[in-house]
Every structure is written in structure tokens, then in C-alpha cells.
Amino acid sequence: MIVKMKKEATREQMIHVEEILVGKGFQVRDISGIEYGVIGVVGDTSKIDVRDVEALVGVEKVTRIQEPFKQANRVFRGEDTVIEVGDIRIGGGNFTIMAGPCSVESRDQITEVARAVNASGAQVLRGGAYKPRTSPYAFQGMELEGLELLKEARKETGMPIVTELMAPSLVEKFDEDVDIIQIGARNMQNFDLLKAVGKTRKPVLLKRGMSATIEEWLMAAEYIMAEGNPNVILCERGIRTYEKFTRNTLDLSAVLAVKKLSHLPVIVDPSHATGKRWMVKDLALAAAAVGADGLMIEVHNDPENALCDGAQSLTPEQFEDTVRGVEQILNVVGKKM
Amino acid sequence: MIVKMKKEATREQMIHVEEILVGKGFQVRDISGIEYGVIGVVGDTSKIDVRDVEALVGVEKVTRIQEPFKQANRVFRGEDTVIEVGDIRIGGGNFTIMAGPCSVESRDQITEVARAVNASGAQVLRGGAYKPRTSPYAFQGMELEGLELLKEARKETGMPIVTELMAPSLVEKFDEDVDIIQIGARNMQNFDLLKAVGKTRKPVLLKRGMSATIEEWLMAAEYIMAEGNPNVILCERGIRTYEKFTRNTLDLSAVLAVKKLSHLPVIVDPSHATGKRWMVKDLALAAAAVGADGLMIEVHNDPENALCDGAQSLTPEQFEDTVRGVEQILNVVGKKM
Amino acid sequence: MIVKMKKEATREQMIHVEEILVGKGFQVRDISGIEYGVIGVVGDTSKIDVRDVEALVGVEKVTRIQEPFKQANRVFRGEDTVIEVGDIRIGGGNFTIMAGPCSVESRDQITEVARAVNASGAQVLRGGAYKPRTSPYAFQGMELEGLELLKEARKETGMPIVTELMAPSLVEKFDEDVDIIQIGARNMQNFDLLKAVGKTRKPVLLKRGMSATIEEWLMAAEYIMAEGNPNVILCERGIRTYEKFTRNTLDLSAVLAVKKLSHLPVIVDPSHATGKRWMVKDLALAAAAVGADGLMIEVHNDPENALCDGAQSLTPEQFEDTVRGVEQILNVVGKKM
Amino acid sequence: MIVKMKKEATREQMIHVEEILVGKGFQVRDISGIEYGVIGVVGDTSKIDVRDVEALVGVEKVTRIQEPFKQANRVFRGEDTVIEVGDIRIGGGNFTIMAGPCSVESRDQITEVARAVNASGAQVLRGGAYKPRTSPYAFQGMELEGLELLKEARKETGMPIVTELMAPSLVEKFDEDVDIIQIGARNMQNFDLLKAVGKTRKPVLLKRGMSATIEEWLMAAEYIMAEGNPNVILCERGIRTYEKFTRNTLDLSAVLAVKKLSHLPVIVDPSHATGKRWMVKDLALAAAAVGADGLMIEVHNDPENALCDGAQSLTPEQFEDTVRGVEQILNVVGKKM
């Protein structure tokens, strides 16, 4: 950690800051320049908030050198984490496709889509039972009934299921019923929810928040891991930028960043990233090419009448075509599906 | 709502789209140009998701003309909403200052700060009992004990209290104990939490999400109002941009936008917006000048040793100076404190 | 174009707006809802500035339906533009790699790099003679001498050269000396420069501005084309976002957007997008997978001592490895190098 | 400057980096932690590009502590720069209003507006002769004729004139004809243009680029100053963000940041920042309250028929009202007009 003093800070103020840091167990080194006092701080600074040091009198700016996440940090665990969901292994050279409708709408719909995506090679079935919608007047999901239908579809196809959890009060229910618990982008910093899923040992699919930095995203994973649950799968789903042609801007460099900084697996959701069906296949290929550990793709048997996100859902035929393309890319990059 | 067809869309596809819209009770008008088919849709489109119409075959893009919020919309309620908290009136020409520490740390601390800000003219006491922190290793607040200390400080000073709620399970407790329930920026789209506070009649301070558009923010207010609670106070606290000199970028034009689009009161939090103590006063003056209905300001009796956000907390003396400046601005713009 | 009137606008104001629009040769359709007057405007609105219509009394908002670009618009030219540079064809199923150092530093350096990238399969040699640097104290390029060295390297290897033009006064010189004129991100809306290169018939590589929307980027292309030069190659090089882990955020969905909206070729620059050497190969593969028409990659024979952008430059060996990977991806997506 | 080595970097690599830095005249201090090697670099690092150090083998990240601007830096000049334009003094406790139409359209128009804004208290007349427009098909300004009309308006009213320069070839003409040369947001990093105006001694109004950081903005000022022209006036005009309700997002905290980091005067343009006439007055008051050194405001005698930016232009009456409000705010903050 580097502490830059103000130009007008006194020698006493700098000593005061150093004493406080030493009192907290750090070593300090004077690396002052001509214009400013600068203190280099040596020790494990991951549990200090840089902003607290910035509050000290005479301090202008504090810069962290070490990343604030520990358990999610590749520095402390060199090999890739591989997460097992039944027979499926996520991360570490495996490539996993999760597919299904935005929301569960009926027994026929979810079963039909499940069979189709399974036949094309998807390994995990997605489907929303509880839906976070911008408008209170929009369809909010089939809720518990939707969960039951997902379970039926799992029974029918043998595919594990992933679905979004929005309320801490439902954690136990989800822990029992589903195979992977999804935390949506809007709840990436809903810390109560993160702590609640951290108390289970269920794999958690943690979507990147709409405008979360990579560090904040890994800190959200750290919340889950700090409670004892190491099974976190990250999911890049586009970030909010000034460009409005797409729903969000897919940040594929984030896949590389995460793999550098962390040992956790990271998959990509091109459906939410773009909001446009006709972009999904090509970005799925790109995600496979860049080195993602999998994909999450929305598929609907009747996108025109979907109760949500029809505009970004593939038909089963388009999904089949996408998976075939992805397979070829995986051959090139040396991953297996 | 305007539906633009693809250039290659057939006449049949356009008729199909029109039929679906008519089937949903809308009137349609053909306003096609030379290159594209375009349909103007007349009727209350606030309950349709434009993205669902975009899912129809042949459709390229759908643009909403009408805002999707109803109860928060000034179109349906011309006069300003005024929210009463005890004797205090928020909105409608009144100017309300909420002040206090980032987090409650001890009886002495909260009482001392409460007395000081009260003496300077703050009407509402803020203080976090449950703290959303980026790191799981950072101080998470005194929780229930903090809530009790806030109540004591209220008793002592007579100031109503505002504090952040993070878990739906604590809504009843907060409804009983606090005067204004704060929903933090990270939870602006935690819809379960919004619905829960919507079921109370307690005033809710709704902070703008880190990268929420004004429309999404008002839709979050709509979630609360749709459950029956009309007492929503909005709080602009800076948005996330590429500029990192400040913690966030304070968007004072949002105050004007909200006042145009909605009848709800809107206050400004310059402390979180900037993260820098030395910017707070001048931006507080600017917020008063632009027409905000109040301020939320962090004040600490010992910022150097604050357990959170010391770097952005004013001392009681700095707060006093800020309030005196704000008063003079309010004289110019014709508001009263 | 859709004109939404204010709620409080009078009938007379709406008629006034309609008369003005009719006077400009448009047809108008009343598509008013219950709360607002709304006018649908039919005709070629590409030469109207929506903001001018917004200036009319009673108007609240104007939304364009038709894109404002004409010559760059795929609607008016269905087939891909293919740009010829000597024997090389850019666009239309071809894949072109442009490579070389950030800046020309010496005869040895540019010749050595040119030979290496040529041997690996690059078709065009890049190299900066005039360098836009954030700091006036940083190396500004070898200027005319650099241009001469580039020409020598062309002579030696037979590769056409692309280099950045910053001053309108040098257009003639560049038109004579180079094969492709590059317009950098910072100058994407330097309209004088765009007009100047528009007056030549030389292929122009137009980089996307740091925070340019896709529409603004295509409008910049339109500036060049409107002067008579149809030979525009677009280059996505990352956009500015809140995320600072990478230098910029590479927007691969922009490739798809451009291909949908325009017939112009679009290539990708992963070096500037990320600023990180170790990300370049994987994003190059992703760019090939998503459907880009080529790549621009920085290569240096001695990155440690490069006078600019060494941190993002590949060594010749890394470049060779990248090209071999890209080739395999091109086999999958059916493009040829 | 702080150099963080990669975890896997060898001791030799770290020594190599240290040697290179010492060879460039710096002192180095080892401030390594347990996981990483870290080097503190002491000396004037303003002329090093951090990215060049990042290119060294074994280096992970380089962080600058010292700002890279010198002449614009308040550290090297404590007192405010005051720029004189005839009798007018800009900066240092003075408040200057520049007003006029977006573009010069006719003798009558510019003269009429000039008289009106002069009567209301504007000290400088603005008006575009050369207009940067997103579309090549939009009105590009009256060019030289517009310049002549501006000079006539100056003669008539005695007000100095400010107008935008877009081409380096016109620098001499502008130096002779105008009182303040404006560099527009799109050209903030048009370094050829910056160098050209740097060679004059004419006051330069440097608008902040659409997505320029404060540091980049001050570096652009540094380009002008490094050529010998110290007369730079900065102008905040809104930045590009995800929020599209306003044309840009006005960043009033930038005024405070600039005043902290630099001694140069900084004014605010609420017209371009918002694009909405009805927001201009309130944000002008806020700009005065926050401590800006002046305003630039668009005024048109007939906004409905303005050839550009009518939607954001005030009428002379609205401008008069705005100036009267600003005066009252200036009384509060202790500035004089």
C-alpha cells in the first residue's frame, strides 16, 4: 500500500500516519519524492480499507498494491478450481453450456426446451422461476410452481438445473431443490444474499454486476467463499457503457482478467450481454475462442410468445447451430465439452 | 410506442405484428417510410415490455414514447409530494438536511455527533447499523445494537432517524424502530427488498443505483409505490463513470430530471458522490442552488478514527460551516430549511 | 422520425410543428396517445438534426427512426465493400492482418519487424511516424524520417504500409507515400482531417473514437465518403468504460453491429484495446471468431526498449503464434487469410 | 512511481528493472511485500510513460504517484492564474460570462444577440463560425464570413469574441481576429492543433473532451503551455456516461478537482452539458455555487429557427433571468462579475 501525503503536510503528520500504520502491524518505508512525502507500507493490507487511511490528516491519496481478495486469488491457489455438479465438471479445461428459457412458463414449455437443448449438447438447464424485472407490472415468474416444473424437467432429462435466487429466505429451499444457485447481476452486491449462499456448499453462479469492476466482482465471490462455500462460478454478462446499440457491452477481456487474478471458473452469457438474438452465436464463438469455461444461453421454443426476453432467445435450431460452431472452436483452443 | 420493421420484413410480418398489438388492445397507425415499415402504437403501453415486441418476427427495434412509470409520474400528479416525518416536511419547497456518521460506532460517538448536527440545523439523524461493505473482512456495522443506539440518540435529541435496511427479514423491525428506511445504491434493484418496504407506510429513502438510469430509478420507486407505499424520497449519490478522481460522479442534472418527470422529493448526498471531504461543502451549495429538496451528509466527531468513510466525513465544525453556506443559497433560490 | 409533444403543449403548437415539418417536405401522421401528442414523420429525415426539431415550442423529445448515415448504410448497398490495396483485398470474406511497431524507431527496427511479421503472414505493415501522445514530453515520433523508413521497409518486403495522419497539411504527402492512411481514435471527429482524406481516393483506416457510439463512428465514415472517397476501413480498438483493468474495453459486439448497419469492412486492434501483451492473442482469436475482417497488432523486436507501447507489443515469436491460432479459427468461420 | 513485479518474477528481473531505473537517474527503494516484489521510485517521473516501465520483463503494474503535468500543476504555482482579455480578467476571484449563439447565422442575428447578452451582463461574445457537426450534411457554419460578422458585433458592442478553431491552418487568422480561441471537446487531443495555438500568446478556451479524464484534460493544457502559451482557460461541458436523459453529464466536481490540481481558471458550459434549455439556469446557479470562474451559455434571439442547438439555447429574456440569479449566488460565494 502506498500513502501519498499532501504537499503541505507537515513532517509531524507523516510521522503520525507512520505510527498508526506501525501500530496496526505494518512496516513502513519512506519513499518520498521532492514534492510529496510518500510512505510504502509492507504487510498484509487486504484487511485495511484504503479509504480509512485516506481519512488521516495530511494524507492525499492511498493506493493499494495487493488485491483485496484472498480466497478467490490465484496467488494463493495456482491451479484452476473445478466445480462438480453431478457428473459435470466446470472449469479446468472443461467447457460447460447452460441453456434454457429466460423464465419457466409452463410444463410443456420447459420440458420441450430442456429436451431440445439437451439433445444439442447443453449440460445444464437454466430457467427463471423468480424473475427480477425492471417494472413491477411485468411478469415476475411462476415462483414456487416454476421451481417444481424445473425439477420435473430435470427428472425427465437428467440435466442439473440452475435458477436465480433473489430472497435470502429461500436459500434453504433452493439448496435442497436446485443444482446451481444463480445470483443475478442486480444482486451481485446484495451482501445478505451472498452470505446466505455462502453458508451452503451449493455451487453458486455469480453474475457480474451491471457496472461492477473485476475487483468488486471477485470481492463478491470472496463474500461467498469467506462464509465457507468455495464453489463459485463467475459469469460475465456485459457491462453498462455509454453505447446503447446493445443491451450491455460484452467484456470478453474480463474472462482473461479473471483467469489471471483468480482460480475460479468463468462463463459467458451472450444473450443478456447483447439483448439481440442475431448476435448470440458469433459472440458465443468468440467467448469459446477467448478461453471462457462455458456459456449461458437463452433458448425458447417460441420466442415470439416468450413471457420475457424473447428478443434475445435462440430457437432450438439456432441453438443447435451455435453449439456445433462452438465445438469447432473448442477443438482449436483445446477444450472439451 | 414505435415499432420499426426490418428492411427485409414482409408485408405479412408487419400485419402479423399489428394484429398482435391490436389483440392486446392497442390502436396501430402505419407511419412507414420508404425504406422501413414503421408502426405507431397508441394506448397505455406502460405495461408492455418493449423487448417482448422486439421478439416478434420482422421487428428491428421498438421505441417507447411514454414513460413506463405511473404512480411516480408527474403526468398523473402535478403537485409535489410532501412527505411528513413527525414535524418535518420533505419536498414541496422545504429543504431537509440529514446528517450523521457513516456507521454507528458507540453510544458516545452517535450521541455526540447527533447533538452537534442538531445544533447546526440538521433535521434528521443518519447512521448505519448494517453496513454494505465491498469487502467481507471490513467492519459490517453494529447491527441491532447500533439500531438501539440510534434510538437512544433520537430520544436524546428529538431527531428522527434514517438508517439502511439490507435484509427483507428486518423490515418489520425497521418499520417499528426507524423513521425513514434507507435503501442503498447496491440494493436499488433488490426487488424483494423494494416490495417488502412497499408493504409498509414508512417513508423510504431510495438511493440511486451506481449505474441506474433515471428511468430505472423511478421504476424502483414504482415498485415501492405499487405495493401501496407512496412515501418515497429519492437520493442522488453520484453515478459510476470512467472518471476516477472522485469516488462517483455527482449528477446534479438528475435533480432537475427527476423534478420534471416525477412529483417525488429528491435530495443529494455529496459525501458518497465524491468520497472527498474537501469537496462536500461546495457541492452541497451547488445541490441547494440546483433545486434539490435536501442533503444527506456524513459527519463524524473523529474522522481519523472512523470505522468507515472517514475520508468523506466532515467534522462538526465543517458541517456547521456547510449548513451556514447552504442557508444563504436557500435564500437565493427561495427555499426554507 | 417521431416527435413527442409536451403534456402541456397546446393543439396550436402541435399544428405549428406539423406545418414546419410539412414545409420541409415531410408527411406527418398523428399518432397521439392519451397523455401526449405524438407526430410520426415520414420522409428522408437523414438531413434533419433531431435537435433542431426539439427546439420547436411545445416539443418534448424527438426520436430518429432512420439512421442518419447514407453512403455507409447497408440499406443502400447490400453487398460488402471490398477495398483493394495492391493485391490485397480487405473485406468481403477476406481476412487481413496489419502488424508492426507502435512507432518507427530506426531503419533496423522497422526492417527487422517488417520481415518478421511478413514471414508470419501479416499482409500490411503498420508503424507510427507521427505519434499522438497524451504527454507533450513523450516521444512524438520520427515524423518525415519515419515515413521514409517505412517506405524503405515496404520496398524491402513488398508489404503495403499504413500509418497515422494527424495534420490536414500532410494529406498530399501521405496520399503519395502510404498505402492506407490511418485516422486515430483521438481524431475520429476531427472533421477537417476527415474531409481532407475524403478528397483523396486512398484507403482510410478509421479507428473508433474513445467514446464514440457506433452511429457517430459511421457518421465519421460518412464524412469521408461524402467527399467522394468510398474506401473506408473501420477499426474497433476498445472503448472507454468505468473498468480500468484494461486500457480500454474491447467491444466485439461492435463488429457485428457494424456489419449489420454498414457494408464497410471492420477490423479489430486488440493491442490498444487492452494495453496488455498477454491478452492480445486470445482476443485476436475471439475477433476472428466473431467475424472481423482482420486485425491490427503491435509487434516489436525488443518490447522492453520500445519507445512507445512496449507493454502491449508482441514479440515476433508471440505474433507468429497468434497468427497460427487465428488461421485455425478462420478455418472454422470460413474466412481466408 | 511504484513498480509491482509479478509474483513469478525472479530476483534477477527485479534487479534488472532497478538498474534500468537507476540508469535513468532515479533512486529506488525496495518496498516488497510477502507475495510480490515492489519497487518505490524516487525522482521526477513526469517525463516517463508508466506504460514503458510496464513493458519490462517481470513487471506487472506501474502506478504513478506524481501527476504528469508540470506547468499546469498547482504544486509549482500556488496562486491562481488570471488571464486578461482587454479589460476583462478571468480567474482569481473574477466571474466571467461568455454568451451568444451556437453559430453565427447573419449580421442581424449576431448583432441582436450580442447587444442583448451585453445588456444582461455577459462580458464575452461567443458564436461559432466553423462548426463541428456530427453529420456532414448538417450546416457547417458561415466560416470566414461568420468571422467577419463576429468582428462587426465586437465593434458594435465592445465585447471581446471567442470562437472555435478547428484547423491548424487558420491559427494565424484567428490569432489576429479573435480574442479567445476555443478548442472544442472533439479536438481536445488534436495535438497538432494544441501545438499550433501553443505557439501564439492568445488566450485559449480548452473544452474538456467528451470522455477525457481530468488528468488528460490538464495534459492537453500542458501541450499548449509547453509551447510557450500560459493563457489557458478550461471549460467543463459535461462528460459522456451511460445516462442519456441529458446530452452529457455535467461534472461539477471537476471544477473542484481542477482548482485543487491546477492554477488555471475553469468555467462551465451548462448548455452543451445538458442539451436542454430548461436545465440551463439551475445548473448555471449550481456552477456559480460550486466555485467556477465563469459560464459559457448559448443564447439565441429565435431558438426555434436556430441553425444549430436551438433546443439548448436560451432566449435573451431567459438569459437575463439566469444572470440575475447567478449574481445573487456570487454574492453568497464572494465572487464578483
TrEMBL record, chains A, B, C, D:
Pfam families: DAHP_snth_FXD (PF18152), DAHP_synth_1 (PF00793). Residues 1-67 form the DAHP synthase ferredoxin-like domain. Gene3D superfamilies: Aldolase class I (3.20.20.70), Phospho-2-dehydro-3-deoxyheptonate aldolase, domain 1 (3.30.70.1140). Keywords: Transferase. The keyword Hydrolase does not apply. GO terms for biological process: aromatic amino acid family biosynthetic process. Residues 82-322 form the DAHP synthetase I/KDSA domain. One of its GO terms (molecular function) is aldehyde-lyase activity. This is 3-deoxy-7-phosphoheptulonate synthase. It comes from Propionigenium maris DSM 9537. The gene is aroF.
